[in-house]
Amino acid sequence: MSTEPQPAARADEDVHFRLAGPAIESYPSDAEGPVDYLEVVSDRHGPLGYLWASSTRDAAGFVRRADGGDHAANESVAWVRDLRAARARGVPAGELLDFFARTPLPLDPDASHYGRVVPGPRSTASTLSVLRSIAAS
Question: How many independent structural domains does the chain possess?
Answer without folding.
Answer: 1
